[in-house]
Amino acid sequence: MELTVARSGTINFFDGQAVWDDPVHQQQVRLLPTALRIIAQVSGGNDAEAVVDSLSRDGHHNARDLMSAMLGAGILQPAGDADAQDLMSELASWGPGVAHFHFSGRTTAETVFVDERLLDLELQRRSLDGDLPAYFPDVIGSRIDLAAPVPESWSEQCSALLSLMRARRSRRAYSTTTPFSKEAFSLLLTALHTPTHIARDHLGRPTKVRRVVPSAGGLQAVDIGVVVRSVEGIEAGCYRFDRVAGQLIAVGPNLGQRSWVHALGEQEWVNDASFAVVYFGRTRLIRWKYARTRAYRSLFLEAGHQSYAAYLLAEALGAAHTFIGAVRDETLERLLQLDPRHEFVIGASVFGVREPETDGTSEDLTSFEWERQALHDTRSG
Ligand SMILES: Cc1cc2nc3c(=O)[nH]c(=O)nc-3n(C[C@H](O)[C@H](O)[C@H](O)COP(=O)(O)O)c2cc1C
Questions:
Q1: Residue ranges with strand state E in the chain
Q2: Model pTM score
Q3: What is the pLDDT of residues 164-191, one digit of tens each?
Q4: CA of 335 to the centre of ligand 1 (A)
Q5: CB of 170 closer than 6 angstroms to any ligand 1 atom
Q6: CA of residue 158 to ligand 1 center, whole Å
């Protein structure tokens, strides 16, 4: 059989040991010296039998078994079977480091998400151990006191915006009976995502599009898909949003309760949410303008801007909203018909009809005194 070495992995050396590091399948495998020789010979163009013969002659009698284990682990693959390689192809041309960074963080249908209750217990233990990093690092220098802001002394507009910003929070309690209103749903999508301005060159060709959130190079390379569960007048299902026409395009099925929670990182509190806006980056679009690798970062930043605008608008509408990073990228890519080679999921905004929160309390602090207090506590503790 003709074999190739999978292009999805690299060989790294840690503490004198060779390790196969594969970000697509998210696995690291320690390589025995014989495995390294197999990789060298297969990359040299030898077929499987020739490699086994040559290694057996040198006394490596386990070469055949090792080779089939390497096939099973995806280190070797039948020639022509290039799925993972194909998946990485576009990002890899931006630099293999970007492709590795990207795929090692991509969640799949099998990813195990941290159980929040177990994490809480673990964090309690860690804080008892006193290893919480300082809230503010110990910086030496002369200090200037800033007065706590008094929003009321500024314009009405500024004061209204500050109150909205202070009222904003991640809200995870939703009505179990009332569907989300279609008007509020439409406003959230169109106000945040459809263009507001277009700049043209002297020939009238569009050069830059603007909307309410900033965008690297004005490219709007972070796009959205929408998974609807309970919005009045809109059939539950998966949609892409044509932000120019302001229309939803049905692309995927209505998710049952289990699939909905599964796609959104097994977070049970999403059970009664009404819909999720899924942010995805379009690398082809941003690369069209910026060849440099750093442009990749801007997609994450841009999704953050969009999510914050969603927080404010949801707050103003009296709706509930929480941004989540713990989503299943691969599952959402499939549901929204994204092409993972150049369209990748970043996170999602989960919306619902607001209900009062019952879990925990949150103290309303009107000045920034708490920051000083926290700083003082970490220093004196
Ligand atoms: C990048 C990012 C990822 C987040 N992911 C999740 C998530 O997966 N699940 C969740 O319940 N909240 C998530 N949150 C919300 C935070 O938990 C929340 O902002 C934080 O607890 C502070 O609460 P607040 O937003 O009410 O001020 C995320 C927030 C950010 C900025």
A1: 3-5, 10-14, 17-22, 27-31, 76-78, 197-200, 206-210, 222-228, 237-242, 247-252, 275-282, 320-324, 343-352
A2: 0.87
A3: 999 999 999 999 999 999 999 999 999 9
A4: 23
A5: yes
A6: 25
